[in-house]
UniProtKB/TrEMBL annotation, chain A:
One of its GO terms (biological process) is L-valine biosynthetic process. The keyword Amino-acid biosynthesis applies. Keywords: Amino-acid biosynthesis, Branched-chain amino acid biosynthesis, Transferase. This is Acetolactate synthase small subunit. The lineage of its organism: Bacteria, Bacillati, Bacillota, Bacilli, Bacillales. Dimer of large and small chains. It catalyses: 2 pyruvate + H(+) = (2S)-2-acetolactate + CO2. Catalyzes the conversion of 2 pyruvate molecules into acetolactate in the first common step of the biosynthetic pathway of the branched-amino acids such as leucine, isoleucine, and valine. SUPFAM superfamilies: ACT-like. InterPro entries: Acetalactate_synth_ssu, Acetolactate_synth/TF_NikR_C, Acetolactate_synth_ssu_C, ACT-like_dom_sf, ACT_dom, AHAS_ACT, AHAS_small-like_ACT. It is an enzyme of class 2 (transferase).
Length: 175, 578
């Protein structure tokens, strides 16, 4: 099953390499990985979606990540209340005849058309991975010419942030 | 003006923690090595490290020049293993650095503290496939505890300080620092006064008391308890505590290969080595136990055999300084993260008494008597096992025995009888042929007052034999004993047992005359064919204060037994004494 890990790391060169190299040699299967700056200078945050079999594998992922010296904090946030979003850009066939139909279709997704040519449009959408999947599914009949997804990035919901960060630290210390 | 902070080094010489004037990166390195009280540097020069070697010239730290970089790093490992101190290695960029990779992987597997410095091409040409450029930081990420590339000379002192801290704390391991050539030539201020602060690295040393209490209750309730002790006990220098716990609770104990010497081999509760070539008593104990206490071992597959059959009836306690080892291979009931010594001291404070397991002890003791390690002695041959017993006898069991990898390694583990810690130096996790001779050199440098035996196979010896030169150059009285079976014995054994005696490329049909080879290096050599000859030569030569090589022609077809074949459980041993 897919699990979501939030990993705080030093923004040193090669950190991404350390993490992906670790997954490679331990045989962990990456679904997606996003990296970006955080509120603190020199510290980056990764949101990693991994396909893991069971509790024991999950524990190994957390521990192996934690063992990396450039890793400051690891949280398995799969079951935590989180806001998880992904951005997708889809260039889809669209002769002028179908264009208004397309606009209506993407409306409920709060997606927008960000680029237009004679026979295609590029649609941008932001949402949960499920929502992105649904949009792709709907657009398929029109003929998708190009598609790019960023992968999931996530944060904890406001009320629960403090609570979980305490309990996740305990998780690491108690073992 | 900068204040000059000073501190007293081990040798009583006062050292400057902060230099008043800028110095070059190369000088910073030398200065930092002085601050770390480094005794020896094992290194090999080249273009990218010329400025470093210039700074090392007449700097007062002893430099050991091997004949191959692999020799340097294995020597540093041998030194680290017997002294517990950090081994320091220097290699040049490109091929110098890649020649260190096997040693890094070996040190990583066996948790040996090393700081390895590699030269690198200048920052202005980095990434352009410049002459002798190799991305050693990328290459060595999986085989180092941590690694650095220094891009700014101002960072160099703190990086070195961190590297020494990381290498020899928590679970020890190798740390590599890659330094571009121009950085070694750029000047900057040397400041070694800052404390090491690494937010992402804070190993848990003192275990959780609640967990220790749980272990204590499990011990009180156990009917069939056993301890499996690994190298973690030796890293923690906790052999005395281990002995006390065993005496206090009368729990029988098995060692891993790298744990040997933790509990004296002659202790009545010592069951022997566990695992693939372990004893019947040790493996049966692990198989049947209702409480298994692992102290500082990582449940390697060579120890556990088929996991489906491993310790199935046992409550598993795992004490390890590396949390990632706990639960990795074997599901654990009572995890204890921390230093083995701290954990043992806390356990001793629980006032445990003799466990109610008299029947269990008795049955294991009977297995120990009924199924000892064994071999069939044939009078006109030199049996390798008997050779090891002889070496133990003539060195009174007190030598530092450094082995290579293969059959002779297993026989050394089985028959030498290690009564004291830090006396057995061997490549466990990686099983690196070629480790033995250079590691023996490092071990001898670390313990000049001890007898060091380099016990080598005829195969592995030929992987790093060029290091013989060092025995003469640095006057190291290492006794090189070659267990010569004319084959890659361990491979031959597997082909005999599992591949229908099809000896594919495992026989060493020709080879150099080892005696002449020794003589070419200025070392005296002997060849022995029988036990009597071996006894005569060995008892004389262990007294000699120089290096010697003894080519021992042992029974070529001898196999290592007993054995747990791959894929089998510890209860499915073959080659047990009839
Ligand atoms: C570098 C390396 N290459 C290959 C092996 C596989 N291997 C394990 S034991 C062995 C045979 C070693 O032969 P020798 O050194 O003569 O020792 P013996 O087993 O005969 O005592 C080999 C080839 C290894 N462990 N290391
Ligand atoms: Mg051999």
């Amino acid at each position: 099953m897919n699990r979501v890990f939030a990993v705080t790391v030093n923004n040193h060169s090669g950190v991404l390499n350390r993490i992906t190299g670790l997954f490679l040699r331990r045989g962990f299967n990456i679904q997606s990985i996003t990296v970006g700056a955080t509120e603190t200078d020199g510290i980056s945050r990764m949101t990693i979606v991994l396909n893991v079999d069971d509790e024991r594998d999950t524990e190994q992922v957390v521990k192996q990540l934690h063992k990396q010296i450039d890793v400051l904090k690891v949280q398995d946030i799969t079951e935590a209340p989180i806001v998880a979003r992904e951005l997708v850009l889809i260039r889809v066939n669209s002769p002028l005849t179908t264009r208004s139909e397309l606009t209506t279709l993407i409306g409920p997704f709060r997606a927008s058309i960000i680029d237009v040519s004679r026979d295609s449009v590029t649609i941008q959408a932001v949402g949960s991975p499920e929502k992105v999947e649904a949009l792709i599914f709907l657009l398929q009949p029109y003929g998708i010419k190009e598609l790019a997804r960023t992968g999931v990035t996530a944060v904890l919901r406001a009320n629960d942030a403090a609570e979980l960060s305490r309990s996740s630290r305990n998780y690491v210390l108690s073992i | 003006m900068t204040t000059v902070l000073q501190r007293e080094g081990q040798d009583g010489v006062t050292k400057n923690l902060v230099h008043p004037k800028p110095i070059s990166g190369a000088q910073m390195l030398v200065e930092a090595l002085r601050q770390e009280n480094v005794e020896y540097i094992f290194g090999y020069p080249g273009g990218a490290v010329l400025p470093i070697y210039d700074a090392l010239y007449e700097c007062g730290i002893r430099h050991i020049l091997p004949r191959h970089e692999q020799g340097a790093i294995h020597a540093a490992e041998g030194y680290a293993r017997v002294t517990g101190r950090t081994g320091v290695v220097i290699g040049t960029s490109g091929p110098g650095a890649t020649n260190l990779v096997t040693g890094l992987a070996d040190a990583m597997m066996d948790s040996l503290p090393l700081v390895v410095i590699t030269g690198q091409v200048g920052t202005q040409v980095l990434g352009t496939d410049a002459f002798q450029e190799a991305s050693i930081v990328g290459i060595t990420m999986p085989v180092t505890k941590h690694n650095y590339q220094v891009r700014n000379v101002a960072d160099l002192p703190q990086v070195i300080k961190e590297a020494f801290h990381i290498a020899n704390s928590g679970r020890p391991g190798p740390v590599l620092i890659d330094i571009p050539k121009d950085i070694t030539q750029t000047e900057g201020l040397f400041d070694y006064s800052q404390p090491v602060k690494i937010p992402g690295y804070q190993p848990t040393v003192v275990p959780n008391r609640l967990q220790i209490r749980k272990v204590a209750s499990a011990i009180r309730a156990a009917k069939r308890p056993v301890i499996l002790a690994g190298a973690g006990v030796l890293h923690a220098k906790a052999n005395e505590e281990l002995l006390r716990l065993v005496n206090q609770t009368q729990i029988p104990l098995a060692h891993t290969l790298l744990g040997l010497g933790g509990l004296p081999g002659s202790h009545p509760l010592f069951l022997g080595m566990a695992g693939m070539h372990g004893t019947v008593a040790a493996n049966t104990a692990l198989y049947e136990a209702d409480l298994l206490i692992n102290i500082g071992a990582r449940f390697d597959d060579r120890v556990t055999g088929n996991l489906a059959h491993f310790a199935k009836q046992a409550i598993v306690v795992h004490i390890d300084i590396d949390p990632a080892e706990i639960g990795k291979n074997v599901p654990t009931d009572i995890p204890v993260v921390g230093d083995a010594g701290e954990a043992l001291r806390m356990l001793l404070a629980e006032n445990l008494v003799v466990t109610e397991a008299a029947d269990w002890r008795e049955s294991l003791d009977k297995l120990k008597q009924d199924y000892p390690l064994w071999y069939v002695d044939t009078p006109d041959e030199l049996k390798p096992q008997k050779l090891i017993e002889l070496i133990s006898e003539v060195t009174k069991g007190e030598a530092i025995v450094v082995t290579d990898v293969g059959q002779h390694q297993m026989w050394a583990a089985q028959f030498y009888g290690f009564d004291r810690p830090h006396r057995f130096v061997t490549s466990g996790g990686l099983g690196t042929m070629g480790f033995g001779l250079p590691a023996a050199i490092g071990a001898q440098l670390g313990r000049m007052d001890s007898t060091v035996i380099a016990l080598l196979g005829d195969g592995g010896f030929q992987m790093t034999l060029q290091e013989l030169a060092l025995l003469v150059e640095y006057r190291l009285p290492v006794k090189v004993v070659i267990v010569n079976n004319g084959s890659l014995g361990m491979v031959r054994q597997w082909q005999e047992l599992f591949f229908g005696k099809r000896y594919s490329e495992s026989l060493l049909r020709s080879g150099p005359d080892f005696i002449k080879l020794a003589e070419a290096y200025g070392i005296r050599g002997h060849r022995v064919h029988s036990y009597e000859e071996a006894k005569d030569v060995l008892s004389r030569e262990v007294q000699y204060d120089g290096p010697v090589l003894i080519d021992c022609r042992v029974t070529p077809e001898e196999n290592v037994y007993p054995m747990v074949p791959t894929g089998k459980g510890l209860h499915e041993m073959v080659g047990v004494k009839p």
